[in-house]
Amino acid sequence: MNRPTNDTFLRALLRQQCDYTPVWLMRQAGRYLSEYNATRAKAGSFMKLAQSPALACEVTLQPVERFNLDAAILFSDILTIPDAMGLGLSFVAGEGPKFAQPVDSEEAVNALFVPDPDEKLRYVIDAVSTIRQALNNRVPLIGFSGSPFTLACYMVEGGSSKDFRKIKTMMYTRPDLLHRILEINAQSVATYLNAQIAAGAQAVQIFDTWGGALASAAFEEFSLAYIRKVISLLIRERDGERIPVICFTKGADQWVEQIAQSGADAVGVDWCSDLAQVRRRTGDKVALQGNLDPMVLFGSEALIRQEVRRVIDNFGKVGAGGHVFNLGHGINQFTPPESVAILVDEVHQYSRQYHQ
């Protein structure tokens, strides 16, 4: 595996010396870009876009071409795994993802299986290799998956949920069923991420989007335990290069020490956390990623630059630590692209003083 010409992102994740703080954005290939909307219209639907390696490559590269970002992230969806299990994924306008066959009975749980990425998710693996070739080692490529618990939320609920009533009912009344789902999901996520790594992903992120919806004791048992399992099964080195793992749990400030001990190289931090406090609590044992409020990008140029500086100042002198600048969650679809250019410029220029 050849190191990218710009390997700042990988170096920061491994807490190695960098000239500046690298930056990428969660959901950086998305609806806030006119070129993305044009490609999606050409594809005909979100799923057709995601299932075309050529078009997935096209939209993955769009933000990298437009902005001076330090990493590309595979364009895909976190629900590819349950779709490959045969649950029938579709996207309904205004309602988000829906599964035709939710996992809401013992029979449905017993029918689950670990999908073979080479067979059921070939389009994703082909997209990874296509993107790597197109990037031509300019910047690293990030692969990703949803966490076992986050995937289970969609699988049991049958789609998005505001209160997680169905999955929490299963958790409190039939924890054995939920543990079976999570065990299969953990095996599936690890297999899927390893296939992405084999195809060329140079770092991977686990999106534990809904782990923060759990009570404290339940988070350890039903989310973090299975994230640890996934990380323990991952390929961590390929062609002599370390493959860093990022774990991002939204709403997880109270558990950041435990997440830092999960085996991940970096912990994603949402905008509700104080980065300096998180750094003290984790003791530079992992890199940190984050954590600008995405809504800052609707402010003036002066405000954006001020808030970017605030995040960088909050992390402080890098020293033995590692910092990857990011938003505290995915970029909003109405974000002005000019604001992203301002953000990237300010991160690159202002952060250099902390890397001397």
Short account of what is shown:
Helices cover 48% and strands 11% of the residues. It has 356 residues and is an alpha/beta fold.
Topology:
Blueprint lengths: L7 H6 L20 H10 L2 H5 L2 H14 L5 E2 L6 H8 L1 E4 L3 E4 L6 H5 L6 H4 L1 H14 L5 E6 L1 H10 L7 H9 L1 H25 L3 E6 L7 H18 L3 E2 L2 E2 L2 E5 L6 H5 L5 E3 L6 H8 L4 E3 L11 H15 L7 E2 L12 H14 L6
Parallel strand pairs: 1-4, 4-5, 5-8, 8-9, 9-10, 10-11
Antiparallel strand pairs: 2-3, 6-7
What integer value in Å does the Rg equal?
Answer: 19 Å
Look at the helices and sheets and give the structural class. Answer: alpha/beta
Mean pLDDT: 96
What share of residues is helical? 40-55%
Query: Which stretches are poorly predicted, pLDDT < 50 over at least 5 residues?
Result: none
Q: Would you count the extended β strands for me? A: 11
CATH architecture: Alpha-Beta Barrel
Main β sheet profile? 7 strands, parallel
Distance between the termini: 29 Å
Tell me what you see in this structure:
This protein has 356 residues and is α/β, with parallel strands linked by helices. It has a single domain (8-355), classed as TIM Barrel. The chain is 48% helix and 11% strand. It is built from 16 helices and eleven strands. The chain has helices spanning 8-13, 34-43, 46-50, 53-66, 80-87, 106-110, 117-120, 122-135, 148-157, 165-173, 175-199, 216-233, 256-260, 275-282, 301-315, 337-350, and strands at 72-73, 89-92, 96-99, 141-146, 203-208, 237-238, 241-242, 245-249, 266-268, 287-289, 323-324. The strands form three sheets. The chain has a seven-stranded parallel β-sheet. Strand 6 (237-238) and strand 7 form a beta hairpin. Helix 4 (53-66) runs parallel beside helix 8 (122-135), helix 10 packs across helix 11 and helix 15 (301-315) packs across helix 16 (337-350). It is globular. The chain starts with 7 loop residues before the first helix and ends in a 6-residue tail after the last helix. The relative contact order is 0.15. The model has no long low-confidence stretch (mean pLDDT 96).
